[in-house]
Design goal:
The longest helix is centred in the last third of the chain and has 20 residues. Helix 2 runs antiparallel to helix 3. Helices cover 63% and strands 0% of the residues. The protein has three helices and no strands. The protein has one domain.
């Protein structure tokens, strides 16, 4: 006769909010650099803008360049801050 065991994990623990200190922010930047997340994210944004540019060929290229630059700047900053 086989014994089947079930384990439960308590997910109701309380979590305290993270304080975004300068040290924490620098650690997040370092992790993004080490694991390649920042570069992967940039590649996705570039592909997305290329796709939009192909769908809207009447929009000047200067617009797309500025748009991509702003999205990358804002998105990477927000991603590194955890969206807060």
């Amino acid at each position: 006769m086989a014994f089947i065991g079930f384990f439960t994990w308590n997910t109701q623990d309380e979590f305290s909010p993270v304080e975004f200190t300068k040290e924490y922010e620098e650690a997040v930047y370092e992790i993004f650099d080490l694991n390649g997340s920042g570069e992967s994210y940039k590649a996705v944004i570039v592909k997305m803008v290329d796709m939009f540019q192909g769908q809207f060929p009447q929009v000047p290229e200067e617009y797309w360049n500025r748009f991509q630059e702003e999205v990358l700047k804002d998105s990477i900053r927000e991603l590194k801050k955890g969206g807060n």
